[in-house]
């Protein structure tokens, strides 16, 4: 009878150990804690009804699973650290370079010819680009006539409609095309200088901080220039 009472006490000891362990580890059961529980259970098992081999093997299998999960978490953490290091290298190499991104604004040096492109989904008989200054006033219109579908290049000489050279600054470009019986807006691909970069948090995407444009994800960059 005393032995039977010991078995009941064993269950109580294990329960108290598990509760204490969970409170200390905040419900995180690692391989060391799992092994301690297994040893405690073996030390306090009923001598008249010892644990069967099948149960012991099952618990060892659980132990192996816990250990495998910890190793996997460690490997993933290592991979994430390596990815973030790679982002840092990318960041240092992009600062000061020019990229082509989908946007309608750009910082323009009007002493040079500004080169950009637009995306035309289908052939159009009339393609044009309106140029706006920082005040929102149309300063020029680039008429390109008929164009085939695809990426269409266009240039602006930095002058207004009267031929006067405008001051350097941020300008907005509005591309339009006539097709399917109506005039529709188009996406423009404009150059921008990379002022700085922001590393993605927790493995997130690298963000480029572009002059005159703002922040944009690295995946949206179409071309990286010199």
From TrEMBL:
InterPro entries noted in UniProt = FlgD, FlgD/Vpr_Ig-like, FLgD_Tudor
UniProt keyword terms in alphabetical order: Bacterial flagellum biogenesis, Cell projection, Cilium, Flagellum
Please give the superkingdom of this protein's source.
Answer: Bacteria
Q: Where is the FlgD Tudor-like domain?
A: 86-222
Give one Pfam family.
Answer: FlgD
GO biological-process terms attached to the record:
bacterial-type flagellum organization
Residue span(s) of domain FlgD/Vpr Ig-like: 110-180
Q: Does the keyword Transmembrane apply?
A: no
Report the sequence similarity comment from the record. Answer: Belongs to the FlgD family.
- Role played: Required for flagellar hook formation. May act as a scaffolding protein.
Please report the name of this protein according to its UniProt entry: Basal-body rod modification protein FlgD
Gene it is expressed from: flgD
């Amino acid at each position: 009878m005393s032995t039977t009472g010991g078995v009941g006490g064993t269950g109580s000891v294990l329960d108290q150990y598990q509760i204490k362990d969970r409170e200390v580890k905040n419900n995180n059961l690692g391989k060391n804690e799992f092994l301690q529980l297994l040893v405690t259970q073996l030390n306090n098992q009923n001598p008249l009804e010892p644990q069967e081999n099948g149960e012991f093997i099952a618990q060892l299998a659980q132990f192996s699973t816990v250990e495998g999960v910890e190793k996997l978490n460690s490997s993933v953490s290592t991979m994430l650290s390596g990815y973030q290091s790679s982002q840092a290298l990318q960041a240092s190499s992009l600062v000061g370079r020019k990229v082509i991104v989908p946007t309608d604004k750009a910082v323009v040096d009007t002493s040079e010819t500004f080169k950009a492109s637009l995306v035309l989904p289908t052939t159009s008989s009339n393609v044009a680009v309106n140029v706006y200054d920082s005040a929102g006033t149309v300063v020029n219109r680039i008429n390109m006539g008929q164009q085939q579908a695809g990426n269409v290049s266009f240039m602006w000489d930095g002058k207004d409609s009267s031929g006067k050279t405008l001051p350097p600054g941020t300008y907005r470009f509005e591309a339009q095309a006539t097709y399917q019986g109506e005039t529709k807006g188009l996406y423009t691909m404009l150059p921008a200088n990379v002022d700085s970069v922001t590393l993605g948090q927790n493995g997130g995407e690298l963000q480029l901080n572009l002059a005159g444009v703002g922040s944009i994800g690295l995946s949206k960059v179409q071309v990286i220039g010199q």
